[in-house]
Amino acid sequence: AQKAGIALGETRLIKVNMRMETNVKDVYACGDCVESIHLITKRPVVCQLGTAAVRQAKVAGTNAAGGYAIFPGVLGAAVTRLFDTEIGTVGLTEFSAQRAGIETISVAFSGKTRAQYYPGALPIRVKLIAEKETEKLIGAQIIAGEGVAQRINALSFAILKGMTIRELAKAETCYAPPVAETWDPMVLAAQTLIRRLKRK
Hints:
Helix content: 25-40%
Strand content: 15-25%
Radius of gyration: 19 Å
Structural class: alpha+beta
CATH superfamily of the largest domain: FAD/NAD(P)-binding domain
Order of helices and strands: EEHEEHEEEHHH
Number of domains: 2
Strand order of the largest sheet: 3-4-7-6-5
Largest sheet: 5 strands, antiparallel
Shape: elongated
CATH architecture of the largest domain: 3-Layer(bba) Sandwich
Number of strands: 7
Number of helices: 5
CATH class of the largest domain: Alpha Beta
């Protein structure tokens, strides 16, 4: 890329604007070779995820074909499965928030993926990170035997819309003993964090 005169960014990946344009006229880039802007910190980050790549590709293709589209940035929503354990993350960790100069409050809550009395209910641990000043949710990590992806997706949307932990604590979620608790663990985590704030 450098030999072609294409500029690299802070992360040493290709620097693009929101239309996926490089500094070279009519040259677009997307996917693992470009840096993305984090929606919380507004700083360039490495986000080599398929979800980001396909969205960037659609934007790049639209603009290269004469249309107009933008890619706003990333929250880094990701999930994986290791044997019988699912692990997911979205937004900032406490460490990455600290590096960005954001003072945080956080909680880690342990519960069950379904009604506790129902056969097959599995352990789940939800960690929520919020900005201390605004109480806005800025990150979450979940580890559980099941149901991680849909919760990470919900929390990704909550972060995108600037939801506070107090708003999340009031969220209405579905319930049926075979598939869900009356209070979803992510809602209970938010309620736990609010109680912790009141004690301070």
